[in-house]
Backbone:
């Protein structure tokens, strides 16, 4: 599929790493978003069944100013162990919140969120652990652009179709501190494992447009709708992700940016934020570009609006690139005529 909607790594200094295990008894994985330098971060949780770690540290009222990585993973609460591997890897590199005079005296703060994918590979207790997190961190690259049923999205299901990892990025002109227009980059990554559907049943297309998708034939649409009509929604779900930018934000502004991404989730997934979903979105701001103090509120509003757009597109990107399994079809396997 030739259409590339962009990558989280389009934001300079953001690395992305995936590790998954997919075979007869496994279908799960971990995704790590690693920053080259500490970044300001925020988080917003709106689902009724979240599984998270260290998100309190991101509150503007608390001590830690910046983080080095975010861990997204399968495995439900068990999968939170994968963050241990990311923490250990960062500590070995001397990265983290400094708590003493020596280089090794650091405590890495790695916020994490999980999706529910237990049993989807055939064995309920096969889930990510610390080794998954360390492997994903070690694979983190500035050039990673893969998406679909990889990393934390390896076992994802979205509204009865195969889910996965999706990404999108864009640039916007905003005035910097000197008053000159500067090209700001914003990017989103979503791990889509939703209870709700991303497909509009009246058209057979996703609720939000994707450049790789056109209207399917009536035959393919009927095949798709017949499948969706016979799907029993998974009882436990979640969509998680990260939006990143190269703008300098304080922690309150980063939190507002994370909040805006949920507008994108609500546009692309219907229903969303249910009691059975643990929808959690992080933001990361590298601080390479300082916005002008003049009309800053308007600039931040434009940044947030773009983040919402990209989150919606990233969610659709996940199901467009997902791989079908023996018992869960993908959108494109049921609707091949929808591909441009």
Residues:
């Amino acid at each position: 599929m030739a259409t590339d909607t962009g990558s989280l790594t389009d934001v300079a200094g953001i690395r992305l790493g995936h590790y998954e295990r997919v075979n007869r008894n496994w279908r799960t994985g971990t995704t790590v978003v690693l920053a080259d330098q500490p970044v300001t971060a925020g988080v917003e949780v709106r689902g009724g069944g979240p599984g998270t770690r260290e998100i309190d540290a991101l509150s503007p009222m608390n001590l830690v100013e910046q983080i080095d990585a975010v861990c997204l993973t399968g495995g439900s609460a068990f999968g939170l162990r994968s963050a241990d591997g990311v923490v250990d890897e960062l500590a070995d590199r001397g990265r983290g919140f400094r708590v003493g005079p020596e280089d090794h005296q650091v405590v890495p703060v790695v916020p994490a969120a999980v999706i529910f994918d237990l049993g989807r590979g055939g064995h309920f207790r096969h889930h990510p652990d610390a080794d998954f997190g360390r492997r994903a961190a070690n694979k983190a690259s500035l050039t990673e652009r893969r998406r679909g049923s990889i990393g934390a999205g390896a076992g994802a299901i979205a509204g009865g179709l195969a889910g996965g990892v999706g990404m999108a990025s864009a640039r916007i002109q905003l005035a910097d501190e000197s008053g000159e227009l500067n090209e700001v980059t914003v990017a989103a990554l979503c791990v889509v494992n939703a209870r709700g559907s991303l497909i509009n049943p009246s058209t057979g297309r996703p609720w939000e447009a994707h450049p790789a998708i056109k209207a399917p034939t009536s035959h393919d649409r009927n095949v798709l709708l017949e499948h969706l009509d016979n799907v029993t929604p998974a009882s436990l779900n979640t969509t998680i992700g990260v939006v990143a930018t190269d703008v300098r934000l304080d922690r309150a502004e980063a939190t507002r940016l994370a909040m805006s991404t949920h507008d994108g989730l609500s546009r692309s997934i219907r229903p969303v934020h249910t009691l059975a979903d643990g929808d959690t979105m992080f933001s990361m701001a590298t601080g390479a570009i300082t916005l002008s103090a003049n009309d800053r509120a308007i600039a931040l509003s434009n940044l947030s609006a773009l983040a919402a757009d990209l989150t919606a597109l990233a969610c659709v990107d996940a199901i467009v690139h997902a791989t079908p399994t023996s018992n869960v079809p993908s959108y494109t396997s049921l609707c091949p005529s929808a591909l441009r």
